[in-house]
Amino acid sequence: MCGIVAYVGYRQAFPLLMNGLHRLEYRGYDSAGIALIDNDLNLYKCHGKVADLEAFVADKNTKGTIGIAHTRWATHGEPNDINAHPHFSRTKKLALIHNGIIENYVSIKQELINRGYKFISNTDTEVLVHLIEDIQINEKVELVEALRIALNQVVGTYAIVIISNDDPDTLIGARKGSPLVIGVGKNEMFIASDATPIVEYTKKVVYLGDEEIAIIKRNGDLKILTIENIEKTPYIQKLEIQLSALEKGGFPHFMLKEIFEQPRSIKDSMRGRLSLSKEIVALGGIIDYEDKFLKAKRIIIIACGTSWHAGLVGEYLFEDIARIPVEVEYASEFRYRNPVIYEDDIVIAISQSGETADTLAAIGLAKSKGATIIGICNVVGSSIPRATHAGSYTHAGPEIGVASTKAFTAQVAVLTLMALTVAKKKGTISRSRLFEIITELELIPEKVEITLKLNDQIKELAHKFKDARNFLYLGRGYNFPVALEGALKLKEISYIHAEGYPAAEMKHGPIALIDKNMPVVVIATNKGTYEKVISNIQEVKARKGIVIAVVTEGDTTVKALADHIIEIPETEEMMVPLLATIPLQLLAYHIAVIRGCNVDQPRNLAKSVTVE
Ligand code: AGP
């Protein structure tokens, strides 16, 4: 996600745009830029936060009553000065800012290169602004028409604003899959990723719809066209929401917002990498290393915390589908254990922040022993991706809540694609089975949406267990890492002690803890070991334990045994972690809120543990 804000009106644009960028920094903060028209089209941008941009332009001409500004969350191209937005067209008459992912930018870029265009950045955005100008010049059409034609050629998501030095009274915005809202003021107009930069100037807003283009004039004229060139009547609404809630998209906490973002973040983690029609799985980031996976005798997964739990799911995936032995290591243990590492080992390092010190150090150790390091990370250009040989970004967008939620499910989604990619290459999966799995993967975002409807039921359940002093989470197979993740979520934000355990292991000790005061969460969706999990539930019930069971919808057997039932949609066993984790995230969240805990910044925790 990136932050977009633009203005045209009677005020000096600069202070308003910079204030707007600060409001939007929660959407992304690895580089920032601004373009203003004051006779000339002046464009300034740099790596770093909005404050770094402010320092960078302190001695520049920042006058002008029309401008666009952008704070970046990199998806294509490292966070640096060149890849920051806005991007100039070749003639430098146009400047464009963009939030989203243009999936077919490589082919468009190649076509433009063949026609003599040169690119200075690695971004998909620069390709778009060159394409627009190429059409404008060659088709001899107005900017709006050139934009409309260009948007009919791109595949992917976009929220863009473009300005032209030839028309200093007009902002042009367009969106598909990424939000844009227009602020309607008195002799001034705004457009932004959300209403946070707008709300102090006007409460009158128009939410742009998908595949719509907005032509916004300084005098307040607003015209909306679809990309099929059909005019739409702007629907002006009155904003009721408070500024503080706006940054959280109307949610009370970033964590809840990010839990509810998972249909989109899982979709984005697979965007352009999965195609049912072509039965392909294509992880561009590891394409040059697929042969290394073929030769590997084992995979070592290193990570910490929630990322380690995702790694555990990865172990089941790679062994189950690609038939490669996997070891999952806590990075902190691995780095000091003097581990045996072979040159044909593949080491997969998983990290949301890309800055976890233990994981970074473990990578260094493995690299020094000649292993191939593959990264799975959420923050583009952070230290861990830069330390690996190759890898795939999770594209989950900024995760602000300290407790990781959408990053976990995005990591599991990318691990699934990676295991499928290797399995296809190794021939350990049949074409029909691959087709079955891809078909189900494409349905997961919708099934996550259905699972999120459990929110009210889980909130009610949370009231019953807010005073519990201990929780036990049990799962088998793919659900064992889910049990660990559910326990971690609860303990790190509600401060209730919780332990995740393999369900069968319970009788080797933890069963001594079971009594009427011990809530036991059991993920009981298994197919292969369903009867075994039933026995585990009976063992808990026999000792008066309270069972909260996560089951496949329609399950009546567990329903007859457990005290509370949480039903999730039916899915492939290997994809249950993508669904079963969600009610556990919600349970932890609601218990923590009821207990008055600081959900987004739990005590003693940091979002990125950059120290040992
Ligand atoms: C997860 O909820 C925790 N905040 C923590 O365990 C986190 O997963 C761990 O510190 C690893 O962070 P990383 O994914 O950024 O490397």
Summarize the structure.
The protein has 612 residues and is an alpha/beta fold.
Please give the radius of gyration in angstroms: 25 Å
Bound molecules: 2-deoxy-2-amino glucitol-6-phosphate
Strands in their spatial order, largest beta sheet: 3-2-4-1-10-9-11-15
Decide which structural class fits the backbone: alpha/beta
Major sheet details = 8 strands, antiparallel
Strand residue percentage: 15-25%
**How confident overall, as mean pLDDT?**
94
* Poorly predicted segments: none
Helix content: 25-40%
Tell the overall outline. globular
Oligomeric status of the shown chains? single chain
Number of strands: 27
End-to-end Cα distance:
30 Å
Number of helical segments with 4 or more residues = 20
What can you tell me about this protein's structure?
The chain has 612 residues and is an alpha/beta fold. Helices cover 37% and strands 22% of the residues. It has 20 helices and 27 strands. Strands 3-2-4-1-10-9-11-15 form an 8-stranded antiparallel β-sheet, covered by helices on one side. A 7-stranded antiparallel β-sheet has the order 5-6-7-8-12-13-14, with helices on one face. Helix 18 links the parallel strand 25 and strand 26. The longest helix is centred in the last third of the chain and has 22 residues, at 431-452. The protein starts with a strand and ends in an 18-residue tail after the last helix. The model has no long low-confidence stretch (mean pLDDT 94). The structure holds 2-deoxy-2-amino glucitol-6-phosphate. 2-deoxy-2-amino glucitol-6-phosphate (AGP) binds at residues 304-307, 351-353, 356, 359, 402-404, 492, 608-609.
